[in-house]
Amino acid sequence: MELFNSESKKIVSDPINVNNPISLQVLGICSALAVTIRLDQAIIMTLAVVFVLCSSNVILSLIRNYIPARVRIVIMLSVIASLVSVVDELLKAYLYDMSKQLSVFVGLIITNCIIMGRAEAFALKHGPSKAFLDGLGNSMGYGLIIIVVSFFRELFGAGTITLPDGGAGYVLWSIPESWYAAGYENIGLLVLSPGAFIILGLVIWIQREFAGVEEDA
Amino acid sequence: MHSNNYTLFFVFIVTVVLGTMLSFTKDSVKDLQDQNLKADVQKTILRSLNFDESLLLTNESIEETFKSSIDAKCVNVEGEIVDCNIEEVDIEKNEDTLPIYIRMDNDEVQGIALPIAGKGLWSTIFGYIALNPDTDSVLGIQFYKHGETPGLGGEVEKKWFTDNFVNHPLKQPNGEIQYMPKKIRDKSGKIVSIKVVKGGVDYSESNTSSIHQVDGISGATVTADGVTDFLLEDLLRYEKTLDKIRDYGTI
């Protein structure tokens, strides 16, 4: 079966690990910084990106032989933009509070380089099942990093761990009052953008170390 | 290389298909979105009136609370009650029918929420300011819709900013600091509104109007100036209504 041979596994696992779109290619950083203040935002954002990237890869792969090369960028962008708009509308209907928190960053998935990049580099050259796996791998690679970053930013920045629910988020755990009474303080810097850069930098370092990647000098 | 006709045809088909998909999606979730929007506005009003957060968790409980404890009506600039469809009033432009939401408890006014709206930097900002029955001190302020830059002007909706309006530090004779709400009227009872000041409020004794000032937002001076402007403008429209409530306890 084609879906589960070693090549397919590699298509999914490579972008999660040794060719991660954020930590190795350093793409999609803008949204990775913006939506990682809280864990629940990062989880919903991940789901949105998984949906958009998998669908856009499959759709574009299905019509790849019919797309006139001259207008392919426009076609790719229209497909991606439509899918993102669908996600945005659905969030507004079913997860209203979350859509308010994510605000413009859902719409900005359109400009996430990972999505256009995968469409151009992979979906237009491969069949739909491989394109789907590639979309899955890359979006999960993106999601993995932003979830890790948001976990640390929320835990040390705001002192909570929040999971998504229908409303304003379910607080799974928060730092007990007694810790604060004993002198513990949240690191306010982590809630701000520089905090995201610092955590992301550390995550990239550790991830590259694990993946065994070495930059050419 | 595909021909021009083929390219045009292909683009046309893609546009039609994607357009249909989008309008179908929008159409099927529009009702839900409208409900969410309505509940969000009601939630903003209830929050500004200092209702407990536990009453505001679901759309249903919000509607229930709103129905049972809020007296919603319209007034004109003269402070007289007028008929209106309160949900349809255009808060931004309207000058003749002004919505007012009164929190009633045992036939007594507990708080008055007024819609406020005006231009920030990029967009119109919508919100509610609630006053105590003395129609002077602020009970709460909340913003629910705006298109300001997240992290800059967008901070107006954040708790730290809205808390500014109810946390005026007042030094007691014994040196302790007590927090009290900001005030919209000066000593003579004239409405002077609240000013969002660049940087932070000067709390030294030489600044006699610090009770009418709140801290601004770094990097969002235009948004802050917008808030200052429309807050004054909107409060003045309700001046006669507020005077009435202060003097007679009702409209």
- Proportion of strand residues of chain B: 15-25%
Given helix and strand content, the structural type of chain A is mainly alpha
The percentage of residues in β strands of chain A lies in: under 5%
**Helix count of chain B, per DSSP?**
5
Would you write up a description of this structure?
The complex is a heterodimer of chains A (217) and B (251). Chain A has helices spanning 6-16, 29-34, 39-62, 72-94, 96-102, 104-107, 113-121, 128-157, 177-181, 193-211, and strands at residues 160-163, 170-174. By secondary structure, chain A is mainly α. The longest helix of chain A has 30 residues, at 128-157. Chain A is globular. Chain B has one domain (68-248). Chain B contains five helices and ten strands; from the N terminus they run ααββββββαββββαα. Chain B has helices at 4-48, 59-69, 159-163, 221-237, 239-248; strands spanning 70-75, 81-82, 98-105, 108-119, 124-131, 138-145, 168-171, 177-180, 195-197, 213-215. In chain B, the strands form three sheets. Chain B has a six-stranded antiparallel β-sheet. In chain B, strands 7-8 form a two-stranded antiparallel ribbon. In chain B, strand 1 (70-75) and strand 2 (81-82) form a beta hairpin. Chain B is globular and about 85 Å long. The termini of chain B are far apart. The mean pLDDT of chain B is 88.
